[in-house]
Specification:
With 224 residues, this protein is α/β, with parallel strands linked by helices. The chain has helices at residues 28-46, 50-64, 73-80, 84-90, 101-110, 123-133, 145-148, 155-165, 179-188; strands at residues 15-18, 114-119, 141-144, 172-176, 192-196, 213-214. The protein has a six-stranded parallel beta sheet, sandwiched between helices.
Length: 224
């Protein structure tokens, strides 16, 4: 079913939970750093051909995929010997909002809905993005999985988030671009779970989701 403003009954939604990378922000920034800058720096540090460096990094990532370590800058600094935060800082000019995400945040700020960021992003990543676009000033609260020691893929994340925010799962709306995270939210009982089809503006849409999908937020809220 195509997304539309009538798809959601906003009167039955109190809380809006928002992912950051690939949902509010263009994932091109993160993908560029991890797919290009980190492998190039690793190849230089280890004196490896770039394809070999990429292969080694992919193998390391595969081992911790979906765990809290996967998202940790400190973990990857220890694994690679690189200053991961500095590599991200060097590319901060690439940080930008997705599509009409900024307009959606402005609409939420004027609404009665609580807007809460729920992200797997490392605190250092959030700090760099905060310096670039002051994201925390556009929402009510910000939570990283690092605050809870467990990623959004795990039910424990949602349990701790609910304890912090006291939201009613059935009256909560959640946006994310990662299927396994959306599945975890739905399993917890989040009543409205929406998939972002095209998180990276430089790449094609993600595979079809089991959840309702959108490309632009104005598809599902009553924008002026």
């Amino acid at each position: 079913m195509p997304a539309s403003a009538s798809t959601l009954d906003w009167a039955n939604i109190d809380t809006v939970l928002l992912d950051v990378d690939g949902t509010l922000l263009d994932l091109h920034y993160d993908n560029f750093v991890w797919d290009q800058r980190v492998p190039e720096a690793y190849a230089d540090l280890k004196q490896l051909p770039l394809p070999n460096a990429k292969q080694q990094l992919m193998e390391k990532m595969r081992l911790v995929y979906g765990t809290i370590d996967f998202y940790s800058f400190d973990f990857w600094r220890e694994q690679t010997g690189l200053d991961i935060t500095d590599l991200h800082q060097q590319e901060a000019q690439r940080i930008r909002f997705r599509a009409d995400a900024e307009a959606f945040l402005n609409w939420l700020a004027q609404s009665a809905h609580d807007a809460i960021i729920a992200t797997n992003a490392d605190h250092n990543s959030l700090r760099i993005k905060e310096e670039a676009i002051a994201l925390s000033q556009r929402v009510d609260r910000v939570f990283s999985s690092q605050d809870f020691g467990t990623p959004k893929e795990d039910q424990e994340f949602w349990t701790q988030l609910q304890q912090q925010c006291a939201f009613d799962p059935q009256r909560t709306l959640f946006f994310d671009d990662t299927e396994r995270v959306l599945n975890a939210a739905a399993k917890f009982g989040i009543g409205h779970v929406w998939h972002v089809r095209t998180p990276d503006s430089q790449r094609g849409p993600r595979p079809q989701s089991a959840h309702p999908s959108l490309d632009h937020f104005h598809e599902i809220y009553p924008a002026a």
